[in-house]
Specification:
Number of strands: 3
Strand content: under 5%
Structural class: mainly alpha
CATH topology of the largest domain: hpI Integrase, Chain A
Number of domains: 2
Shape: elongated
Strand order of the largest sheet: 1-2-3
Length: 301
C-alpha cells in the first residue's frame, strides 16, 4: 500500500515542509509547529509498532484518544490532525501512499459554546443602574427594559420605529432575519418605561418627531456598536464583573424563560429562530445553572 518512507528520512520530511513554505507561504514558526506535530504522531506510531506513513484510520483514532486522555485541548488536537492530513495528501501526490486514512476520521469538535448568562439578580442591578433623571439615562433604561422583556436582537431594537409598537396592546412587531415578521409581547414594565421615555426623553433627542424610537446623533437608528458601548458602561455602573456582549439581554431573556418553565417552541417563536435546535442551547444553559446550584447547596454534591 505504501512505500518504505519514514520520518527518519529527513530529506523527504523537509521536502514536505518546503512545499508548505512555497505553496502556502507559512512562517518559520508555523513550519516548526508542523514539524513538532508530525514528530508527535511518529512517536505514537512507533509505540504501536508502525510508522507515520503506515498508520490506519483505526490507529489515528487511537492517536486522538491518547491526546484526549493526556488532557490536550481540542484546538491543539485539531491542529495536529490538520498537519497530519496535509502530510498524507502530500504523500499521495508524490506516490508514497495511495489512500488518505484521515478521510475516514471524525475529528473531535469543540462543540458550541454556551452563552454567558447573567442571573436574574444581575439583570435587576443592570436595569436599575442608569440615572433615569437624565434623558440619556432614561433612554438607556428603556432600551434595556425592552431588550430583556422581548428578547430582540440589538439590531432589531435599534431599527424599531413608532409604527412597530402598540402600547395599547403591549406588543412589538419585529422585522427579523430574512425580513421575517414576528409579534413579541412587551410586558407591563417595558411598556411603562416606553411610555415615559416617549413622553419625557424622546422629544429632546435628535429628530424628535421622526419615526425612529432610539435615534443616534443624526436622528437615524442608533448604531449597534453605540448601544454595545452604552451597555458596557451601564454594566460597570451596576458592578457587574462579567463583560456583557450585544446579546447579553437576549440570552438572559431566553434562559430565564426556560428556567421558569416556558415551552421551548414558544421561546423559539419569540426569538425568531427558524430551527428549534438553535433554541435548544438554552436548555443546556439552564441545566448548567442547575448543576451549579446543586454543587453550591447540596450537602453531598
Amino acid at each position: 500500500m505504501v512505500a518504505s518512507w519514514t520520518m527518519d528520512n529527513f530529506s523527504d520530511f523537509d521536502a514536505y515542509l518546503d512545499a508548505l513554505y512555497l505553496e502556502r507561504g507559512l512562517s518559520e514558526t508555523t513550519l516548526r509547529a508542523y514539524r513538532v506535530d508530525l514528530q508527535g504522531a511518529e512517536v505514537y506510531a512507533q509505540s504501536v509498532g508502525q510508522t507515520i506513513e503506515t498508520l490506519s484510520d483505526a490507529d489515528i483514532n487511537g492517536f486522538i484518544g491518547s491526546l484526549l486522555s493526556n488532557g490536550l485541548k481540542i484546538t491543539s488536537i485539531q491542529r495536529k490532525l490538520s498537519a497530519l492530513h496535509g502530510f498524507y495528501k502530500y504523500q499521495i501526490r508524490h506516490g508514497h501512499r495511495n489512500d488518505d486514512p484521515m478521510a475516514r476520521i471524525q475529528r473531535p469538535s469543540k462543540g458550541r459554546p454556551l452563552p454567558k448568562v447573567l442571573s436574574e439578580n444581575d439583570i435587576s442591578k443592570l436595569l436599575e443602574a442608569p440615572n433615569t433623571e437624565t434623558q440619556i439615562g432614561l433612554r438607556d433604561r428603556t432600551m434595556l427594559e425592552v431588550l430583556y422583556a422581548s428578547g430582540l436582537r440589538v439590531s432589531e431594537l435599534c431599527r424599531l420605529e413608532r409604527s412597530n409598537i402598540s402600547l395599547d396592546q403591549g406588543v412589538v412587531r419585529v422585522l427579523g432575519k430574512g425580513s421575517k415578521e414576528r409579534l413579541v409581547p412587551l410586558g407591563d414594565a417595558a411598556r411603562a418605561w416606553l411610555q415615559r421615555y416617549l413622553k419625557e426623553a424622546r422629544p429632546e433627542l435628535p429628530d424628535p418627531l421622526g419615526p425612529v424610537i432610539f435615534p443616534g446623533r443624526s436622528g437615524a437608528p442608533m448604531a449597534r456598536q453605540t448601544f454595545w458601548h452604552r451597555l458596557k458602561y451601564v454594566a460597570r455602573l451596576a458592578g457587574i464583573t462579567v463583560e456583557p456582549s450585544p446579546h447579553t439581554l437576549r440570552h438572559a431573556f431566553a434562559t430565564h424563560l426556560v428556567n421558569n418553565g416556558a415551552d421551548l417552541r414558544v421561546v423559539q417563536l419569540l426569538l425568531g429562530h427558524e430551527d428549534l435546535s438553535t433554541t435548544q442551547i438554552y436548555t443546556h444553559v439552564a441545566r448548567e445553572r442547575l448543576k451549579q446550584l446543586h454543587i453550591a447547596h447540596h450537602p453531598r454534591a
